[in-house]
Amino acid sequence: MARTIALRLLQGVVVVYVVVTLTYVTLQLAPGDPFRRTMDQQRVSLEDRARWLAERGLDDPIPVQYGRYLLGLARGDLGRSFVDSRPVRDILLEAIPNTLLLAVAALIVDFTVGIGIGVVQGTRPGSRRDDALSIVTLTLYSMPVFWLGIILVMFVALPIDWIPTGGARDPILFGRQSLLDVVIDRLRHLLLPGLTLGLVGAASTARYQRAALLDALHQDYVRAARARGLRERAVVLRHALRTSLLPVIALFGMSLPLLLSGAVLVEQVFGWHGMGWVAVDAIAKRDYQVVTGAAILAAVMVVVGNLVADLLTQIADPRTREAS
Amino acid sequence: MSPVVRRALRQARTRSGLALAVVLGAVALFAPALTPYDPVEHLDPRDGALLGPSVAHPFGTDDFSRDMFSRIVFGARVSLTIAVVSVLIAISAGTAVGSIAGLAGGAVDAVLMRVVDALLAVPRIFLVLLVVALWDRVEVVTLILILGLTSWFATSRVVRAEVLSVREREYIGAARALGLGRMRLFFRHVLPNIAAPIVVSATLGVGHMILVEAGLSYLGVGVRPPTPSWGNIIRQGQEWILPGAWWISLFPGIAIVITVVAFSLIGDGLRDALDPRAR
After folding, report:
1. Tell me, what CATH number does B106's domain have?
2. Burial (0-12, 13-18, 19+ Cβ within 10 Å), B168
């Protein structure tokens, strides 16, 4: 098992390296130089321009810059913002907790609702209940996540005073409350964004779980369990469901890119200051360094998430351990 | 008609998806004939702004007094064109890369697939944001290219796997023994045999692309106003929700859901017909 982990880790490092190199190439493809992008509107002398570029090492040969970029990244240095010269790492570090909080909330909704619906459907395939739920999941699956967020704001947050329409915390009271109030305040703000992102994800999880359960119910060991006279409930819960959860763990890894893409949109709807919000804000300011940093960070999260999903599958399923 | 298509059409949901898609296509095609007003005209800025749905304006008007029904119908034209053309680009690129990797094998295959792995690891929206940021203003044509060229990765994986399995079949060996050129071998014998999964991936891809384009336009980096796209109308409507104008954001979202459902139904139907086990 240690060898498999090492191999996966190595693959992850290769993926991240290629991502970093590709973003670097894109950065070089940007028309003009960073100087033009950030100081276009101002009248600046050629000397100032040269000094500005030299200070940032932007007049060195490309391979030198690339090497320095890689070395920096290895130390966790993502460069500085073109706009206010703050280290990109600091800007992102501020935003990561919010994105993680949103992602965890969404994953909880995603998997509880998704697996729940999938199991209800999978135990009675072809029934009216199955068909009705299929329509629900298809509709959710086809829904723009940001639109669902706006609809929830319209029909839930506006009529109910207690539920905020946006933000990650109360701007006035935060920090002056007891710990319990702080927790309640954060959960209150998290409710709609988490629900929005989670429900859209739940649609694919439900489809997946339904198929996995149907597949498991046709296996020999389930027939054997039935033949031993076990009650249907026990057959489904103890035998079929347990194996059908395995592919769903793998789904966790696969759904991460989609989750993070969705988070960008949900963060925008609710003014939730996470990574996606920061990236979109940086686009508006043409702050390319920040956009690049956010994209690299998102890719690292996906790679790590996949690694975790892999490990979980190996721990949960002895068969994969022997196979590898 | 291929047996796969016939089997897919036997299912009611594939047929309803197809019917929906045909209607949507007709709406996009005949938009000028279907709309009572010009989609970008400010009709009556003094008295006609932010009117709720009525007989004259079934979907209301926006803050510029533009007719929302006309904007959403023309939005179908914009959003569908972008989605369909960019999917065609993505599918062609994915088929090309996947076939090259599958047929060449060795180092070419290894390098291409590592690049694809990396590109798949960057969440789609982040990837598109990276590329979009290279331009100061993104025109629709540029947007189509960007969307197409950032969406072929998954297809290339599917195509590669198909090519790998097809190229070991006996008829390929026979064709090769007959001395067929590589291009001819590919286009006459390999491509037709991997076409079905490519079509499935394209159909499902149109639905995804509608969502991606809507998302980008919602973020303000996709289709630029005044050109109507469903995503940028939702963006515009969001700031009028608090004052009570709920209709601006509501209707384009419904249009998106219907469109994506249509393409998902067709795509799912085709996929199930292709692989009966997948049901």
Report:
1. 1.10.3720.10
2. exposed
